[in-house]
Structures are given as C-alpha cells and as structure tokens.
Amino acid sequence: MPSASMEEFEALLNESLEMDTPDEGSVVKGKVIAIEAGQAIIDVGYKMEGRVDLKEFAEPGENPDVQVGAEVEVYLRSAENARGEAVISREMARREEAWDRLEKAYADDARVEGAIFGRVKGGFTVDLGGAVAFLPGSQVDVRPVRDAGPLMGLKQPFQILKMDRRRGNIVVSRRAILEESRAEQRAEVIGKLQEGDSIDGVVKNITEYGAFVDLGGVDGLLHVTDMAWRRVNHPSEILSIGETVKVQVIKINKETHRISLGMKQLQEDPWDLVGVKYPLASVHKGRVTNITDYGAFVELEPGVEGLVHVSEMSWTKKNVHPGKIVSTSQEVDVMVLEIDGAKRRVSLGLKQTMRNPWEVFAETHPENTQVEGEVKNITEFGLFIGLEGEIDGMVHLSDLSWDQRGEEAIQEYRKGDIVQAVVSEVDVEKERISLSIKALGGDKFAEAADGVRRGSIVTVEVTAIEDGGIEVEYEGMKSFIRRSDLSRDRAEQRPERFSTGDKVDVRVTNIDTKTRRLGLSIKAREIAEEKEAVEQFGSSDSGASLGDILGAALKRDE
C-alpha cells in the first residue's frame, strides 16, 4: 500500500475516532439494547456498551420507566473497565441535565418541579428531576408543619433560593410558592371587600390578644377589644377554633393586605344609653371586674364599666390597697359621680353609698358626750383614740390633765389602753374629732371659782405645813399661802402655829385661770377687817383707841 494511502487512512481513522469516541466525563446518547438481572444494557456507540441499574431510571417513589429500544442519555464515567465495558450512569446524566435546566430556571426566577423524598437535620431533601436540593423546615409552609408525611413524594412546584454548582448545593422553598398564591388569593378577596361590610368567617387561630378569622382565603384579625362591648379577659371566653362567626370589616390596609375585624360593631353600643340609665348621684349595683393600685373597675352592665378611684372607696381607710377593701367578682353598691361620654368613662363612688361616719358621729355625739375607746396611737402631740364607725378622735396634750403638764401626763398611757373622754369638738369637713380626758369630771376649778371674786373671804382647810408657808384646800382646789401672808403681825408669820386640818378664813387676792390657782392671804383679810372696823366704829374726834374699836367690832361679830 503506498505511503500516501497509509497516511490518508490514518487521518481518516483519527477523524473517525475523534468524531465517534465520546469524552469521558460527558453526557452521551445511548440505546437500550437489553434488560436483564435488574440492569439495562445500553449501547453508547463506537462498539461501547455499559450497564445501568434499573432503579436509576425511577423517579422517587415510582417504578423504573425504561424499555428496550429507548434512547436515553447517560453519563460516561469511563470508556472501559476491567470487563471491557463502558462505565455509565443514568443518575449522573440526569443530574448534569438537571443542573443545566435548574440554573436556567434560577436565572429566570422560574418555578421548578420536584418531590420531597427524605428527611434530614433541619429540613427535607427534594428531588428536582435528578438534582437533590435541601428544603429548610421553615420553608415548607406558611405556618409551622407538625406532620410532613402527606407532602412526601408529591410532585409540586418549588422556588430556588440559592445554587452553588461547584459545591453541589441547592436550597429551595415551598413556602414562597404558597405565599405568592396566597397573595394573589388575598388580593382577589380583598378587592371584593369594603370597610363596613358584614361577612361570615371561620375562627382559625386564637391568641392572647385576639383571633384570626378566615374570610375565604384571607385572614383577618379580630382584636380582643373588638369582640364585645364588655371586658374580655381572653378570646377563648367568647370564641372557639372552627366556629363560624359574623364579623364586620373595620379597616383594610391596601399595602400590607391586613384586615381588622370587629364583632361588637354589629351589636348595639350600650354607651348610647348610659347618660339616661345612669344619672349623676344615682346608686346602682355592680360587679367588681378588675382591681388595680389606683382603684377598682365595676361593671354596671355588659359593656359599661366604671372606675371607683381609691380615694372614693372608703371614708376611713385612706392609704390601703383597693384589694383590701373589695375583691374581684364582688357585688357592690356604687354611686355615679361623673360621666364622660366622649372618653367612655364613668367615675363611681363606693363610700358615697354609705353615710359619712364623721357626720353620723357629730349627730349622735354632741359636745360633752362621754365616749370610750382604745388608744390606737401615741404621738408627740397627743393620743389617738379609736371610736365607733372606724374613726379616731384625738386628745391633745393640753387636754390630758388639769394638774400635770401634758408631757408628764402622756407617760401614763400605753397603746391598747381603754380610756374614757368627752367630746369637745367635731369638724366634719376636716374629719377631725377633738376629745378631752381632763374634762371628764367637769372643770373643778371653774365650778369652785364660780361665785368667788377677788376680795371674797373664804374658809379653807390646812392640808400641809412647810417652811415657806402652808398648803390649803378650797372645794378640792389646792393653794399655797406664803409665810409673809400668814399674818399682818411679823411675829405671827410662823407656819408651825397651824396644824393640818385647821379651818382658816382667808381673803382671795387673785384668781388665775391659766395656772388654775387661787391667790389667798390671811394678812390681807386682817388688814381689810381692820379697815372696815375703823370706818364703822371710829371717828377722829371720839378719842377712842384702836383697841376699843376692834373690841366693839369683835363684840358685834359675837
């Protein structure tokens, strides 16, 4: 054979080899020539055959779909193995084919079809027609899914969120598809709704603050404050899941597609009649619904609540928590004090339904009435005595004793002592009752001094002899006569010439209501008597001596 022909043959051979021999690591077309022992034998050309397990032709959860004579694409991993066969894979071919298709879909932001076939940590695996993707648990549905069983193996659309061919990572979402279709559905439903419409809905979910109601493809929020005119502590008091309710569309937010619903708006507003039903100063029965630091809320009827401020709860308990005066669910009588229709507020009073205890006390205890009570408190300015009607009266230091200083007298009292006193003054407005302990037996000084004037002569009894004078008593009142007042005669100014129990006539020289003392003097009496005798019996020309005059005066007295 000529050398030229040899060269041509070699060139042709090389050309044919280049054209027909597929590259390892590429996807090639082949033909199924036989099926045996769970494998398909595939001719990939250039007298190359390979085997592929039938399961590689099956979609997840389905039977293999392959027949003799079918043309299929396979991935050529190696042109020849130990047995002289091509090493091929249908699965890898599908993967390569799928990646090309998926990358295009990702670039076009198009949906792809797939089926969930396995569960992995944090989510699921999805077969996207040859390529395996990860579906995070949060992307399965709009709301958390408790059981994903019914979704397994179902062909359904997914959205690709992320792709990395080099690492072989694909992340998909089913939720994005649902939200898109929900958004379309919402837009359609919302387009038909108008604010003010009444519509039937089904309660889907209940939370602390309200309930979500399905209006036929779109949810609306029914807030707890819009369920009823009365106070609702928890939505479950009124609603249950699955229940059909009639609601009114209060507000539609066109941008966020949020719908606010109300139930109470379909009922009559009890506030329309509050002014008529609850006139000022009228008294009504109510139920305590809530207690706070500043007062208690009382329900007059469903939907109409009023506040009894802590200052209007009790006449006597001033700095007490409202919970110590009333309890939740208690029935109470209250008076309407104020109504503010605009703010939907009623001010109520609890103490106004009871009489002011200071008024009652003033009526039943006029001045000088004797009372008895327990010493509740002792302060630097007096005693506080507990009186009937849970009120206190005060005995000022100055009203404790006639004889002792207040600071001394108060030392004799202890908390819890039962004492008697008389009412000296009641000030209803200032809620103040003044009492006196020293006035219990009346004012002995005033009684004794009544009728006694300066210059009067009174008889006293000697009660004690001292160096500086004598102590005497007149009508229960003690007085002291100094040595210099015992006689006009200096020689007779001796206290020892008197004895305890002696009766002595004295002249009143002073009446001191402040110190509650009488000023008494024997000397002043003697001087006065002498003066009187001279006036009556003596004359300048008679020549009578003082002895004669006093003798005549004394004789007359006898």
Question: Using only CA atoms, what is the Rg?
Answer: 58 Å
User: What does the average pLDDT come to?
Assistant: 80
**Count of DSSP H/I helices:** 9
Q: Give start-end ranges of low-pLDDT stretches.
A: none
* Fraction of residues in H or I helices: 10-25%
How many strands, which pairing sense, and closed or not: the largest β-sheet? 5 strands, antiparallel
Rough outline: rod-shaped
Q: What CATH first level of the largest domain would be assigned? A: Mainly Beta
Helix/strand-derived category reads alpha+beta
The CATH topology name of the largest domain reads OB fold (Dihydrolipoamide Acetyltransferase, E2P)
How are strands sequenced across the largest beta sheet? 3-2-1-4-5
Number of strands: 30
Number of domains: 6
Distance between the termini: 203 Å
Strand fraction: 35-45%
Oligomer description: single chain
CATH superfamily of the largest domain: Nucleic acid-binding proteins
CATH architectural category of the largest domain: Beta Barrel
Structural summary, described in words:
With 558 residues, the protein is an alpha+beta fold. The protein folds into 6 domains: 26-107, OB fold (Dihydrolipoamide Acetyltransferase, E2P) (Beta Barrel); 108-177, OB fold (Dihydrolipoamide Acetyltransferase, E2P), CATH 2.40.50; 192-264, Beta Barrel (OB fold (Dihydrolipoamide Acetyltransferase, E2P)); 269-351, Nucleic acid-binding proteins (OB fold (Dihydrolipoamide Acetyltransferase, E2P), Beta Barrel), CATH 2.40.50; 355-434, OB fold (Dihydrolipoamide Acetyltransferase, E2P) (Beta Barrel), CATH 2.40.50; 447-536, Beta Barrel (OB fold (Dihydrolipoamide Acetyltransferase, E2P)), CATH 2.40.50. It contains 9 helices and 30 strands. It has helices at residues 3-20, 90-108, 175-192, 274-277, 357-364, 406-409, 444-449, 522-537, 546-557, and strands at 26-36, 39-43, 49-53, 71-78, 87-89, 112-120, 123-127, 132-136, 155-164, 169-173, 198-206, 210-214, 219-223, 244-253, 258-262, 283-292, 295-301, 304-309, 331-340, 345-349, 370-379, 382-387, 391-396, 418-427, 432-436, 457-466, 469-474, 477-482, 503-512, 517-521. The strands form 6 sheets. It has a 5-stranded antiparallel sheet. Strands 8-7-6-9-10 form a 5-stranded antiparallel sheet. Residues 25-91, 109-175, 196-264, 281-351, 368-438, 455-523 form the S1 motif domain. This is 30S ribosomal protein S1. Pfam families: S1 (PF00575). Belongs to the bacterial ribosomal protein bS1 family.
